[in-house]
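Hi there, hope your week has been kind to you so far. Please have a think about how the structure follows from the sequence. I've dropped the whole record in just underneath, so have a look:

_____
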Amino acid sequence: MRSEAREEFFLAPGLTLLNHASYGLTSRRVAAHADRIRQEIESDPTVYLGQHLTERLRELTAEVATALTLPATGTTLCANATSAAAAIISSLPLGPGSTVAAEVSLTWDSADLVERFSWPGTFDPVPRLSLDEALTQHHGWLTAGAFTRCEDLAAASVPLLTGLGAIPTTTDAYTPPRMRAFTLDGVTAPEVKASMSRAGIRVWCGPGADGSTILRIATHVYTDQADLELLCAQVKETVP
């Protein structure tokens, strides 16, 4: 293999790869870029997995469409060829005699559920392959009492926010251990989102079934009392 090109990939020494059609390789350059994107997402997932994601995907779709000389309005990005084929099949008016050729999971009919869902077409396996490390870390947090602290903080948010006029959406018997939700009167969800964003606070906020404004918090191992105090200060400033 060409040594100058080989260095651009993570190929094992001595390997001769003649199967790029089945398993396309990620270059070192693209992998480094992907790592930077993952770190950016993890730095503020509320933003980078929210509206920013849709906007960025729209920009990238336009770039891809231009490169492939396709109309941008009829182009989109899919996770893999399988999902793309499924989208096309479900969108076309197929009739008697129609023939469809599509890529499907190579193990779709396996009786072993792990095997059946282990290869759903081309996909990024990294999240699944990282589960062992994730479980080890989760166990460490659990044994260290981190989740108990999270539950205590979630419970502590109730008297703090109700003191500012927020109304819990349910009773204690039905609340998730590390999550609380409140109704905020006299303010809209966009107003709350804008206020929280200006303060660098990330919460979920949206309309309830009756049109009311719902604010939801979910604590994690990095949450502390100071976070609740900052939230309360911003709610006090936002809610009339």
